[in-house]
Amino acid sequence: MKIKKSFAYVLFFGISVFLLYLTFKNTEFSKIQASVGSLHWEFVFACFAITLGAHFLRAWRWKLLLEPMGYNARLRTSFYAVLIGYLTNYAIPRGGELARCGVMFGTDKIPVDKLLGTVVTERIIDLLLLFVIFMVTLFLEFSTINDFLKLDQLWLLHHYFIYVLLAAGFSLLAFSLVFRKTIAQFKWVRKIIDFLKGFNEGLLSVFKVKNQPLFWIQSIGIWVGFFFINYTFMHAMPMTENLPAKVVLVVLAMGAVGFAIPTPGGAGSYHYIIKMTLVFYFIKAGVSDADAESNAVAYALVSHTAQAAFIALAGSISLYLAFIERKKVSYESSTTVTK
Fold this sequence. Notes:
Order of helices and strands: HHHHHHHHHHHHHH
Radius of gyration: 23 Å
Helix content: over 70%
Number of strands: 0
Strand content: under 5%
Largest sheet: none
Distance between the termini: 44 Å
Oligomer: single chain
Number of domains: 1
């Protein structure tokens, strides 16, 4: 198991390095230096404030999810745990979920398995909201996406092949339903079934939350916060400040994909996806190919680095504060035992 985990870490670290190479291989770093020098710092600090706000909403929502199970988590320790989780993700891909659960166990004595269950629920809700964002983006930017991917030409050239794929998909579904007992014996099929069961249980557990309006306000508020994080940072850089709000939505959606890929802190995957996205919009706006690439790389690098530096600072402070909270809990427990 340890070898498997080590291999996965090395693999995703390698993917990160490779994507960073693809992102920066033709970059003129003098232009990036110039872009850093022309940053509008008031927007950068506004971005940091919104980041804290979005993470606070996540911590508050987590507290709300724990209440139906009879656990009254403290909001401040939940907030520390969320920030420590984000900090951990920059070092260990997907390590943040376990890290923040470990912090909450140490400070609030909530069992880790219960905490992990709520984290799965959070993931499901965020995935559904991200899907909504993709649908809205597709609706608003269909013509632009069509220009980029040539969807109409793809349909004309390959519609027969798409029909074959759909027919094969329905046939496979019918076969699976008829022979479901035999198929369910395969290990990989059981893993898929367990995942779908977990997805369903996580989705249903949302309805156990007593304050449903507050839960959905928090959940939507997190993504609204993420939108304005991108909006403010795009206004912090001269080359992106005039791009329309629709582009911010596209950057949000594509950036979420970049961070979803389990590279350390989205390094490489975020940079490459954002670069490819913005290059297209810059060229469409009449910027030369060379400048479009430099501008896109500058935005990807500076926005990611600024966020990483801020999370490093906020996460480190949270780590220290969580340590103090844990010491207090340990002291109070030992005092109670002594009495």
